Amino acid sequence: MTDIDLKSSAFNDQSFIARRYALEGENVSPPLTWSGAPDDAAELVLLCEDPDAPSGTFTHWVVVGIDPHSDGVDPGERPPGGTELVNGFGRPGWGGPHPPPGDEAHHYVFRLYALSEPCVLPDAPSAEQVHRVVEERQIASGTLVGLYKR
After folding, report:
1. For the chain, how far is it from start to end, CA to CA, in angstroms?
2. For residue 31, which of 18, 14, 50 has the smallest C-alpha distance?
3. Which of 31, 40, 94, 141 has its CA 20 to 30 A from that of 61?
4. Which of 113, 103, 149, 145 has its CA nearest to residue 11?
5. Do 138 and 111 contact (CB within 8 A), yes or no?
6. 84 contacts 61 by C-beta, under 8 angstroms
7. Cα–Cα distance for residue pair 112/62, rounded to 1 Å
8. What letters, b where the CB count within 10 A reaches 16 and e where it falls short, cover 16-39?
């Protein structure tokens, strides 16, 4: 399986995400760029999850149907061709970091998957549901981890 190079101009891998992108800030999705998706990919799927959430892994962003020939998304925008599903806050689209005050920094794991065929997910999928569905179809993936603390 090939790797997708997933980056953000707003933060480096394993570094802190600015308050602007957090729920308590402007709550805009961060800019992302990617390269290395296979030419034969049918679609890209983006997932952002917080595995450190007290109630279990929390879903912050799920986007399906992203144009496999796209190369990124601007801040606060929907990825090209993508459909934003309902996040763990109960709203479609991006829901920024919002860990409990005083917790150690939480990890916000952005994953971009290239799939061999389109996937079907419920309107409000859990991170586990996304993993299960894309696991069968992924032909490449990339990961970027941001940190946030209140």
Report:
1. 37
2. 18
3. 40
4. 145
5. no
6. yes
7. 10
8. ebeeebbbeeebbbbbbebeebee
Please compute, for residue 89, the number of CA atoms within 13 A of its CA located in the half-sphere on the CB side. Answer: 18
Using one digit for the tens of pLDDT, what is the confidence trace for 9-26? 999 999 999 999 999 999
pTM beyond cutoff 0.90: yes
Q: Mean pLDDT over residues 53-69, rounded?
A: 97
Mean pLDDT for 123-141 is 95
- Tracing tokens 């179809």 back to the chain, one arrives at 137
The arithmetic mean of pLDDT across residues 34-63, rounded, is 97
Q: How far apart are CA 150 and CA 144, in angstroms?
A: 20
CA dist., res. 21 & res. 63, Å (int): 17
51 is written with which tokens?
A: 């595995």
Residue 101 identity: P
**Rounded Cα–Cα distance for residues 139 and 143 (Å):** 14
At 48 the pLDDT is 98
What tokens were used for 6? Answer: 């997933």
